[in-house]
Design brief:
Elements (H helix, E strand, L loop, with lengths): L4 E5 L14 H12 L6 E3 L2 E8 L2 E8 L6 H12 L6 E7 L7 E5 L7 H9 L6 E6 L9 H5 L5 H24 L1 H4 L22
Parallel strand pairs: 1-4, 1-5, 5-7
Antiparallel strand pairs: 2-3, 3-4, 6-7
Helix pairs in contact: 1-5, 2-3
């Protein structure tokens, strides 16, 4: 089954986690699906999936239901079923190295401590897929990283989140229509950054 692009949002399934920082990727895929009338109600390949056209391209949207640390199992199954290669894969996920609300598009690189990305790298032969990182910021002093990402967004963050997700949707739309370099202009990179530059490093869960 041919798709031009597979768009995966990372997170943990279940109501306990649905509004936590670690589910930023899930939230972005849900917002993208809603914007384009795509139903994410089907369960396939260990994921909630939906398909439709975005910027004229046939896309499969997915939320792995394997829990974050086993995301790669679902992604591998999706790519195997669709016959899609890593060059047509985009993975959206939370990133503690970025301040809340900042978006960053990257191609390739390591996991940077993110366990969902680490799992995908473990299961895919090609690490060259795109990552759309959604900044959630660093935890306050004394708060472990694991606890921080599994907490719900704070009140001020919840108020700003719709605008952040809207920019993420726009970045994906531009990516599909015009490619990665143009999509960076729909994000908010640091001065001098370009698409495909090295990912930020640091401990993340």
């Amino acid at each position: 089954m041919a798709f031009d692009s597979v768009l995966v949002g990372l997170g943990n399934p279940g109501t306990r986690y649905e509004r936590t920082r670690h589910n930023a990727g899930f939230l972005l895929v849900e917002r993208l699906a809603a914007a384009h009338g795509i139903d994410l109600g089907r369960e396939r390949h260990g994921s909630r999936v939906g398909e439709g056209r975005i910027a004229g391209r046939r896309c499969l949207l997915a939320q792995p239901q394997t829990f974050m640390n086993r995301s790669g199992e679902a992604v591998r199954r999706i790519l195997s079923f669709t016959g899609t290669d890593a060059a047509s894969l985009l993975v959206a996920h939370d990133d503690m190295d970025l301040p809340f609300g900042r978006l960053r598009l990257r191609a390739g690189g390591g996991a940077g401590g993110h366990r969902g990305i680490a799992s995908i790298l473990e299961h895919l032969a090609d690490p060259g897929f795109l990552r759309l990182k959604i900044g959630v910021g660093r935890p306050p002093e004394g708060v472990p990283a694991e606890a921080w990402v599994l907490q719900e967004f704070g009140a001020a963050e919840r108020a700003a989140l719709p605008e952040v997700l809207a920019r993420g949707v726009e970045a994906i739309e531009v990516l599909l229509a015009r490619g990665p370099a143009a999509a960076m202009n729909a994000c908010n990179p640091d001065p001098g950054e370009t698409a495909g530059s090295a990912p930020a490093r640091g401990p993340k869960e």
